[in-house]
Amino acid sequence: MARPTVSLTLLFFTLFVSCRPLFEDELPGVRMQAVRIIDGDTFEGLSEGVTYRIRLDAIDAPERGQPFYRRSKEMLGQLCMEAPLRVELLSKDRYGRWIGRVFDRKEQHVNALMISEGMAWHYLKYSSDENLTRLESAARSGRIGLWSDPAPVAPWIYRQEMRKPKTR
Fold first, then answer.
1. Is the CB of residue 121 less than 8 Å from the CB of residue 154?
2. Could you confirm whether 97 is annotated as catalytic?
3. Which of 97, 101, 117, 136 is catalytic?
4. Mean of pLDDT values over 107-117
5. Which residues touch 115 (CB under 8 Å, ≥6 apart)?
6. What CATH number belongs to 27-162?
7. Does the annotation count 48 as an active-site position?
8. CA 22, CA 4: separation in Å to the nearest integer?
9. What's the pLDDT tens digit per position in 117-158?
10. Neighbours of 68 (CB within 10 A)
11. What's this model's pTM, rounded to 2 decimal places?
12. Which residues contact 134 (CB under 8 A, 6 or more apart)?
């Protein structure tokens, strides 16, 4: 009769080895090149022949028709179009997009940069990250980016207003 501890030890060793990065300095995530910027919080990336639509985690950028929409989209393009990117894929949203934390070639957190540059809101509905809250507060108080607008409207409120039926 085989000793179960040997089998369990072998199982744990196999799992441990298969879950570790190939190189000690390799960080988890998918390496990709941004190929198309959709808007200020979404882009398409290519990795090993597979195209991913990535929605940046914890942020919400201005919608088309809102002030700073174009500048937000351009900022994401500047941050992402310099390959390679590392994207931590977290989950898929109801539209089939991957929700991800994105890091540029210098390992800067792109999601946080969009907030600190005043090009996106910290999306509190989906995130309680205190660092992102601090970055947004600093951008607000410094009137950076969209916070220079006298009355910025959060994208989720803008979308809600756009869905309301128009009355005459």
1. yes
2. yes
3. 97
4. 97
5. 59, 121, 122, 132, 135, 136, 139
6. 2.40.50.90
7. no
8. 29
9. 999 999 999 998 999 999 999 999 999 999 999 999 999 999
10. 21
11. 0.82
12. none
Q: How many CB atoms lie within 10 A of CB 72?
A: 27
Whether 36 is catalytic is no
72: its two tokens: 């937000």
Q: In angstroms, what CA-CA distances link 95 with 3, 55, 90, 122, 157? A: 49, 10, 14, 20, 19
The phi and psi torsions of 133 (rounded to 5 degrees) equal -65, -45
Q: Is the dihedral of CA 113, 59, 35, 145 positive or negative?
A: negative
User: Which entry of 31, 36, 53, 63 is annotated as an active-site residue?
Assistant: 63
Given a contact cutoff of 8 angstroms between Cβ atoms, the answer to whether 85 and 27 are in contact is no
* One-letter amino acid of 11: L
> Which pair of tokens denotes residue 133?
């809250």
Percent share of the chain, pLDDT over 90: 76
Three-state secondary structure along the chain? CCCHHHHHHHHHHHHHHHHCCCCCCCCCCEEEEEEEEEECCEEEEEECCEEEEEEECCEECCCCCCCCHHHHHHHHHHHHCCCCEEEEEEEECCCCCEEEEEECCCCCEHHHHHHHCCCCEECCCCCCCHHHHHHHHHHHHCCCHHHHCCCCCCHHHHHHHHHCCCCC
